[in-house]
Each structure stands twice: as structure tokens, then as C-alpha cells.
Amino acid sequence: MAKIKYQNRIELLQGTLDMLILKTLQWGEQHGYGIGQAIRASSGEVLQVETGSLYPALHRLERQGWISAEWKKSDSNQRAKFYRITALGKKQLAADYQRWGKMVATIEGIMRAEGGAA
Amino acid sequence: MNFLSKILRRKTDLAEELNTHLRMAVADRVARGESQESAERDARREFGNVSLVADVTREKWGWLRLENFVQDIRYALRQLWRTPGFTITAILTLALGIGANAAVFTLVNAVLLKNLPVADPKALVRVGDAYQCCVNNGALADGDYALFSTETYEQFRKNTSEFEELAAMEAGFNFFNPMTARRDGTGSLPASSVSEFVSGNYFRTFGLQAQAGRLFSEADDVKGAPVVGVMSYEDWANRYNRDPSIVGSTFWINTKPVTIVGIAPRGFYGDRLSTAPPDFYFPMKQIERLKDGDYVNDPDRMWLYVLGRVRPGVDRLALQTKLSVELRQLLGATPSFSSVHDRPLLEKAHVVLTDGGGGIQIMQLSYTSKLKLLMWISGLVLVIACGNIANLLLVRGMARKTEITVRAALGATRGRVIQQLLTESVLLSVLGGIAALGVSYLGARMLLALAFSDTNVPIHAMPSWPVLGFALSVSIVTGVLFGVTPAWIAAQSRPADALRGGTRATSGGASLLQRSLVILQTALSFVLLVGAGLFAASLNKLQNTDMKLESKNRYIIAMNPQTAGYLPSQVGALYQAIEENFRAVPGVVKVGISTVTPMDTRSNNDPIQIQGQPDLHKMAGWNRVNADYFDAVGTRVVMGRGIGVQDTPSEPMVAVVNQAFVKAFFKPGQYPIGARFGDPGPSPNAAAIIGVVEDTVYNDVHSKVQPMTFIPILQRAAGDTRPLDKMNSFYAGSIVVETSRPMDDLQTIARRTLSAINPNLTVMKFQTLDQQIADRFTQERMLSRLMVVFGVLALLLATVGLYGVTSYTVAGRTGEIGIRMALGAERAEVLGMILRSALTQSLIGLAIGIPVAFYCVRFVKSQLYEITNISASSMAIAVVTLLLAAFVAGLVPARRAASIDPMRALRME
Q: In this predicted model, what pLDDT tens digit does every residue of B468-482 receive, in sequence order?
């Protein structure tokens, strides 16, 4: 049962989470925990990324070649897997962002129209 | 392996990555002021189920399915390893069941299914469908011709453009005495060799290329052309070690020089499957220069099989009609059809075209019904084996109910559980299938040894690709078929039931399905046991038939003076030398010389008419013998006298006939002695009957003894005007030696004695008369032994099945039996209770098996000798054997049940 729940979440957030990860990685390479913390911090603690969504997304992005990974020592001298955005990933981010803007505008338009009617 | 290790590395990487995440989260929390303990707890809570996260992440790799599969296999292997008793029983059962089938299939494939190793075998067509051999003349009653004269073949070839090529081949080369071959120079001794005479286009018809040198063609198949021959690859490799100088060298074949022009391609064993494939091929027109083959010139003597390659798109039915019309025209012109009696038979004359891809299917004719029977029998054994497997897996499925329900309770889906159990049963059956290949190889070797011992039959025991495919597909089907049901049943169970752990039920134990399987196995194995008894009785009867001969201390030496270069005019002196030199050997009592011997593979038949009586259109066999012959083989004279020393070549021709001859040619009460017989019509070649002998069996125990005539070996009829050197019937085929005691060294003595007379005289075969008789029962012996093997195998499997189910019952009823014993049941009662249930199943199996056995007799009757029904004794033996086996199978678990300690049994819950 639990498994199904996680899968639903991923699907719900899919495009968005991918975009947020790619955006976060634009500032520099980062490990999984760091990415989660960065999204949380930059959203003003609003968005909490579940590990059950984060890691599948990271591995999927890696498989698609949008990000690459490397084992390195972290600041606290711990071995961690660091992710880095690739050239392909940057293109993808631009495309995702454009689509996102279009979608927001469209949804905004619908919401406005509804509001007017009410 | 590389791929697997990659997966494993990624797996540990992922674990480490998630672990790092957790540690970082804890470190952050601690840095924010939380205590180590609460930081760890909260971080873990926030993270969620680590292994689940790992699972969903791994899914993104797209390998989960494969990983599951690997996991299942590893788990299955571990499970199988943990229960060695079950695993070994299951694998052995499968190995025996499938292996027996694969072994039989190896033989079936080689004998019945395989084509000749030639180019495009599908386009080959044989003219004729019947088994006829070897040199015949006269009209056939059923008109179905399969044997043709040189003339008929040549006309067919000339007039039938539908054939791209039409070849002819000697029908009886396996039945004639072998020829001798000696390589020129090198001082080697002549060796006995199998030779076949074939038409010049023989090799081209089969689309063959020479391994070395060249293959002969039409230009070599012309009278007067230099005699050439082609050696088989096998002979070249085995006897001459692939010596390239063989090509172009001279061989002395029956003391005549022949140039070997080439080697036939590797793997080619001639135009038919045979126990003695040809060592040499010669152009058929040269037959009279190498042996007594004057029939090559006679349009009335049929000695050839005809096989051709049809052009694409030819209508076979139309071709068959065309050839039949032509055959009637050709036969109508021969002397055979000149008599008024035979004229109507001409209308019936026809040919039937058959597929020629498998060559001339002579061996197939005698083996088809036996191989089919073997397939049925081994199939039944497989059914019994499958019953066992099903039972074992069912039992295992039930026994693992708890394990499975626990897995279900922990969240495994039903599909996943079934997949796992299926993996296990398929893995088991594949392991069984692999073991079966070993059994199949050994089994096929045994089959070949039983069927073709001491022969050069081109069949190999090594499992071929079709056999491999057959074994593995059978095992996988078995695994899936008998793995699904238990898996399904096990997966149906509700977790709560099993976890509650209640096993205290009196109905506990084997299900109806399991009992039915055991009953079915019992019934089938009983039928097979009865079958084994039938075949053993048949063989026994066959071997104890009174063949009207003496075989004790009798030895048969096959030889042929012609192969040593003797002319018919010279054999008289030779026979005298043989008689004298062999009699001089201490221990030798009688020295018979004859054309054929009792229970020989050879025979000679001619149409016969008693002078002064109407032509009955009957044939009689003939055998030319010396004075010692009847004593040497132990044939008793019942009327008149036998052949004696006084019957010299200069005396008028006399003959001794057997009782079957008297019955066939004379009216009851008519006195045969003094009557004269000869060729039908006003023949001057007549012999006077001087005596009658018993019906010694010459060819086949199965059929009635044929009329036979015995003529002094060198006598000829007064009116015979043929030149003496045309008397090929003077050539003897065997020396029969009777000794006063068993003589193990007689073979060496015979070899020495013959080569002392003439170095070219070779012993072509040496056997005791007992061996020669036993050779004629090879197939029956093979069938009988195999029936016993399969019967025992079936019984063994059924016993294991019964044992398994009974054991399972006892295990399932431990609690119940404990209570019974606690309440005062005696050990003997418990023992009786378990035994009774085991024997009840066997009795039900018997009740089904007995009528089935009686019903099945009709299917094997044609394979039995003078046995038409199941005898009471063999039935009793089968019943007792089966019940004994059932008793043993039941006793072991019953004793275990009786030794249950009530206290421990009750405490177990």
C-alpha cells in the first residue's frame, strides 16, 4: 500500500520537482540531502521534498543524462554522492521553465475568468 | 557476471547515499541543538522507510524485474539446498522420466525422422513402398513392385523426364556374404568388406561431392570399362587412417583388381540405415566381374531398388500412374508372365511412390512398431514421474504454507508469491532436464547396445539438438504445469489462518488430488509391470521353441570360396580339403558344408513343380549340403535317407526335402520318396527325392517353416547344359563344425586351417549356433528387457510417490496420532491404520489397473509370440510385486507414526 502512495506523489510533482532540482544544481554541485535542504530553504520552508520522491527523481534525471554524479568528500569531510547539471540538463531546465511559465499563465487565465464569472 | 556485479555495486552505492543523507540530517539536527537520540529518531521519521525508498529508486534503473528474477533464483536455490531429500528425489524423478523419453526419442529421431545426409533430401522419391529382397523373379501376387530388373530401371530412366536423376541400388547387399578386399602390395591380408553395387549416377542423384579423389559416374558403369570403386569415409578413416594414397590405388576385391578412384563424403552411410553400411561402392554393371551377379543381365530377375530426384512441380500421382503403365508393358515381355496362370497378375502390377528423403526404409519397417511402443511406454513412465513431481510440489506447497502466509502478511503480493514458487519449480525441472540429458545419453547407449550390438549402425547416443530441445521443453512444461497448481493453492491461503497455527484436524493429511495421483501412478505402473511380464513370457517362449536342431557344441564359420578366387569347377577339391583338414583337428566330430545354415539371415527360393503333377505355383527354399551336414546341425531324417558320401557329382541328382515340403506339394498319404521335382514346366533339371527330414527352422521362428529342399553340394541335374563354371550355386556360404566339447580356440584354428588351404580364404564371421540363433531374437530381447526396465522404473516411481504421500499424511496427523495414543491407542493399531490407508490406495490402483491391462493387451499382441492374453501367473507376479512395493512404501512412515511420543506430539502445538 505504502508503495502506491509514494508513486502517486512522484507523478503529481514530476515535472516540477525535476525543474526545481535542475535549478538548484545550477548554483553548483550538490548532494541529495543538500538539494532537499536548498529547495526547502529557498521556498521559505514551504516545500518539503520527500526522500521517497527526491532519490527516484535524482536517479531518473541521472539516467536521462540531465545530471551527472560523482562520489566526493563533503564540507564535513563525509563521503557523499554529488550531483552536477549537464549541458543537456541546462537545455532541459530552460525548456521546463518556459513550459512552466506558459502553464502558470494559462492556469492563471482560467482562474481569473472563473473569478470574474463568480 | 560483469553486469551482475555492476548491479550489486549500484545497490551498495545507493544504500550508502541514503545513509549519508540520514547522517547529514542527524548532524544538522544536532547542530541545531537537538539531542543525539531525538535527532536520530526524528531524522529517521522524516526520511521514511529506507528500504522502500531504495526500492522505488532502484525501480528507476529499470532493472527491478531482472533483479527480482535473480533474487528469486537465489532464493529458490537456497530453498532447494535446504531440503536435499526433496530436491534429490525430484531431480532424480525428472531425470529418469525425461531421460528415458529422450533416450527413446534419440532412437526415434535417428531411425524414423532423420533424412539421409544428402543434398535436398525432400526432392527424393523412391519407386516402390514394399519390402522386397534380394534377387527375385516371378509374378507378385499383390502386384506391388519395389524391386526391379536392370532392364526395367534403364527403361524407367530413359522414359521418365519427370526425374532429374533416377538411380538404382543393389537391394540385398546386407544379406549376401560380404566380399573380401585386400590392398595391393603392403602384404596385408584380405579383409571382409561390405560392398554395394549402384548405378553410375548414384552419387550425383544424392548431390554428393567426393571427400577425396572423385566419385564414379555413368562412364564407369559400362561393361568392359576398367573396374573402379569408391570407398566410404568411415572405412577410409577407421581402417586406413585417412591415407591419401588410397585414392588411385589398386585393391583386390574378391581377388579381382579394382582402382579406388575416391572417397565418399564424410557422414554418408549409403542409401539406407543399416547395421552394416557399405565400405565400398561399385558400379552395378561390374557386379558379374566381382561376384556371381549374372542377374545384372537378366530382364526377368529383379534385384534393384530405384530412387530418384523429381523435378520441381511434378505431380507425383500422375508420375506413379505413368510408371505403373510402363512397368506393365515391361513385365509383359518377360518370361515370368508367359504362363497363362500369371497373365491376370500383370493387370495388378503397379508401383507406389514414397518419400525418399530417409532413403530405402528397410530398418524403419522392422522398427517402427517397436519404437512406437517404446514411445508409449516411456511416455507412461513420464506421466508417472510427473505425478510424483506434482505430489512432491503439492506436499511442499502445503508444508510451506506458514512461510508463504508470513511473506504475504509482510506485504508480498499474490503475484509475487506465485512468481517465486513458479521460479522454484521451473528451476527444479530445468535442473532435472539437465540431469535427464545424462540419463538420456546413457539410456541411448544402452538402447543402441541392446538393439545394434557389434554393428556399425550410423546412430549416435549423443543427444542431438532436437533431443536437447525435446528434453528441455518437456521439463519446462512439467515444471510450469505442476508448479502452478501448488503455487496457486498456497497463495490462496489467508495469512491469518496459518499464523493461528492450528494443525489439529483429523482430516489433515493428503488431499483428494494427491491420493488420486498415487492411485493413477499405481494403476499405470501395474499395467507396465504386466506388460513386462507379457514380453518376458513371449521371449521365453520364442527362445524355447523347438527349432528341430542341435546347437550344443556347434560352430558356424561363414566363408565364400568365390571371394578367394575359386571357380565353380574348382570348389570340389576345396571342399574335400576343408573336410579333411577340419576333421584332423582334435575334438572335431562333424564338418558340414552348406549354402545356408539354420536361423541364417540368408535364403534362396525357387518356384518348383513335382513332375507328373499340376504346377501349384509354389516356391521352395534350397540348400546345397555335404554328407556331414544334417548331423552337424542336428536335423533328423524321418523317412528314407539323408545326403551321403555316395551322392558324388557324377551320380544322378537326388534331393532330401523337409516335412513342410511334403505337406505343401503332396496329397496326404502320397509317398514322396522317388518323386522327382524341378523348375515349373517340362524341365529336364529334375532331382529324385531320397529322403524326408524334420522341419528345422531356417529363417524366422515367427512364421511357419517353409518348404525346403536339400541337394548334394556339387550335383547337377542330368539335363543341365550350362558350363560348369556358371554353376554359382556350388559356392558354399558356411562350414558347420560339431565338436565333442566346447572349444574356445576354434575361431583361431578355423582361421589358421582355412588360410593354410589358401591365404585368400577368410573367416567372414565366426559364431556358435547358439549365438546365431540369439542374433535373430535381438529385437524381441531388446523389447523384453526394456519393458522390464520401464516396468521397474514405473514401480520405483510409484513407490516413491506412495511413500511421499503417506509420510506427508503422517507428518500432518502427528497431533491427531498423539492424541489417539494418549487416549490409549496401541502402537500396532496406529501402524495398521497408516498401512491400511497406503494399501487401500494401491488396491484401488489395482482395481483400475487390472481391467486396463487386459484391455491393453490388444495393442501389443502383434509384438508377442504365441501369447494372446495375460497368464494367471504373470498377473499374480505383478499383483504381488506391486503390493509388496506398496507395503514397503507404507511401512516406513507407518513405523514412524507408531513411534510418535504422545507427550511430544501434544507439546508441539
A: 787 778 778 877 877
> Would you call B308 helix, strand, or coil by DSSP?
strand
Do B846 and B838 meet the contact criterion of CB atoms below 8 Å apart?
no
Of all helices (H) and strands (E), which one includes residue A51?
Answer: helix A51-64
User: In the block, which residue shows the cell 533431443?
Assistant: B467
Contact list, B412 vs chain A (CB under 8 Å) = none
Q: Which residue has the cell 529508486?
A: B57
Query: A81 and B56 in contact by Cβ < 8 A?
Result: no
What pTM, to 2 d.p., does this model score? 0.73
Q: Is the Cβ pair B57, A56 closer than 8 Å?
A: yes
Spatial separation of the C-alpha atoms in residues B776 and B767, rounded to whole Å: 13
Query: Both ends of chain A: CA-CA distance in Å?
Result: 40
Interface-testing mutation among B24, B26, B59, with chain A (most A C-beta atoms within 10 A): B24
CA of B50, closest CA in chain A: separation in Å?
A: 9
B27-60 per-position pLDDT tens digit: 888 988 888 899 889 888 888 878 778 877 877 7
Q: Does A51 touch chain B (CB under 8 A)?
A: yes
Q: Which residues in chain A have their CB less than 8 angstroms from residue B20's CB?
A: 31-33, 74, 78-81
Whose cell is 532493472? That residue is B63
pLDDT at B504: 43
To the nearest 10°, the Cα dihedral for A8, A13, A15, A19? -140
Q: Which of B212, B165, B186 is nearest to B309 (CA)?
A: B165
**Of residues B25 and B454, more confidently modeled:** B25
**A78–B24 C-beta distance less than 8 A:** yes
Map residue B747 onto helix, strand or coil: helix
For chain A, list the domains and their CATH numbers.
Answer: 2-112 (1.10.10.10)
* Whether A59 and B24 lie within 8 Å, measured CB to CB: no
pLDDT at residue B463, as a whole number: 76
CB atoms B17 and A63 under 8 Å: no
Is B17 close to A6, i.e. CB distance below 8 A?
no
Cβ neighbours of A34 in B, within 8 Å: 24
> Any CB–CB contact under 8 A between A14 and chain B?
no
The ipTM of this complex is 0.81
Q: What is chain A's pLDDT, residue by residue, as a tens digit (118 residues)?
A: 333 344 433 334 556 888 899 999 998 999 999 998 898 888 877 777 888 888 988 988 888 889 999 888 877 778 889 999 999 999 999 998 998 888 888 888 888 875 544 4
Secondary structure (DSSP) of B396-454: HHHHTHHHHHHHHHTT--HHHHHHHHHHHHHHHHHHHHHHHHHHHHHHHHHHHHHHHTT
Min CA distance, A33 vs chain B (Å)? 5
